[in-house]
Design brief:
This protein is an alpha/beta fold. The protein has eleven helices and five strands; from the N terminus they run E-H-E-H-E-H-E-H-E-H-H-H-H-H-H-H. The protein has two domains: 118 residues, Response regulator (Rossmann fold), CATH 3.40.50.2300; 81 residues, Winged helix-like DNA-binding domain superfamily/Winged helix DNA-binding domain (Arc Repressor Mutant, subunit A, Orthogonal Bundle). Helix 1 crosses helix 5 and helix 8 packs across helix 10.
Length: 227
C-alpha cells in the first residue's frame, strides 16, 4: 500500500512490467520505502506512454518483455515524451540483446533479474544521485559487438570536437571492459556518485542518453583506443 503522506521529495517511480507476479513484487518493494512514491504501474507499454506526461515520473522501471511494443521503440518514445525521466531496465538471463538495444535507445541503466528487494531499492535511489547501473553481461556484449566490426570507422573531425576529461575516459574504458559502477569506483579510488557524475557528463558531451550508448559512441569515435 502506498504511504498515506509521502515526503515531498519522494522519488516518483513508474513501473512497466508484463508479468503479474513480478509486477506485484516490484510494487511492494517500492511502496515499502518511504523515499519512493509509486505513481502507477502498467502491464502494457502503450498505456504507460499515454500516462508519462501526466504522471511525471523521475524513474521508470521497465521489464523487457512488453507484449504490445518493441522495447527499444518504447524507450525512444518515452524519452521523447519525458526527457527528464531516467529509465532502468530489468534484465533476465538471455535478454542482454534487448537490454543493449534499450540502452542504445536511451535507457539510463540496467539491473539483473532476479533481484532482492533491497538491491532494487538501492539501484533506483542511486539513479537520483546520478549513478546509472550497467550489468557486466550487457557491457561485455556491447564490447564484443564492437570488437567484431559493428562499430563505424573513427570520425576524426567528430572525435576532435568531443572534449572528454581523462577521468571520464577512464570510467568509460572500465565500463567497456564490463566493470560495474561499483567496481569502477573501487578501481579508480573515487566515490560511487563520482563515477555516475563522470558518466553523465560524458554522455551529454557525446550527445547520447545512456552509459551503454556513451561507451559505444566513444569507441566508434576512437576515443577509448583499441577494444
Amino acid at each position: 500500500m502506498k504511504p498515506a503522506t509521502p515526503p515531498a521529495d519522494a522519488l516518483r517511480v513508474m513501473l512497466v512490467e508484463r508479468d503479474g507476479s513480478a509486477r506485484k513484487r516490484l510494487e511492494a518493494a517500492i511502496c515499502a520505502d518511504a523515499r519512493m512514491l509509486l505513481v502507477d504501474c502498467f502491464a502494457e507499454g502503450a498505456q504507460a506512454l499515454r500516462s508519462l506526461v501526466r504522471l511525471r515520473p523521475e524513474v521508470l522501471l521497465l521489464g523487457l518483455r512488453l507484449a504490445d511494443l518493441d522495447v527499444a521503440e518504447f524507450v525512444r518514445s518515452a524519452r521523447r515524451s519525458n526527457a527528464a525521466c531516467e529509465i532502468l531496465v530489468i534484465v533476465a538471463p538471455g535478454e542482454e540483446q534487448a537490454a543493449l538495444a534499450s540502452m542504445t535507445a536511451g535507457a539510463a541503466g540496467c539491473m539483473p533479474r532476479p533481484y532482492a528487494a533491497a538491491d532494487l531499492v538501492a539501484q533506483v535511489l542511486q539513479m537520483r544521485a546520478g549513478v546509472c547501473p550497467m550489468i557486466s553481461s550487457v557491457a561485455r556484449l556491447l564490447f564484443e559487438q564492437l570488437r567484431v566490426g559493428e562499430a563505424v570507422q573513427p570520425a576524426t573531425a567528430q572525435a576532435s570536437a568531443v572534449h572528454l576529461t581523462a577521468r571520464e575516459l577512464d570510467v568509460l574504458r572500465l565500463l567497456a571492459r564490463g566493470l560495474s559502477y561499483a567496481q569502477a569506483s573501487e578501481r579508480l579510488g573515487v566515490a560511487l556518485n563520482t563515477v555516475g557524475s563522470h558518466v553523465k557528463k560524458a554522455y551529454r558531451k557525446l550527445d547520447v542518453h545512456s552509459a551503454g550508448a556513451a561507451v559505444m559512441r566513444a569507441i566508434q569515435l576512437g576515443l577509448l583506443g583499441e577494444p
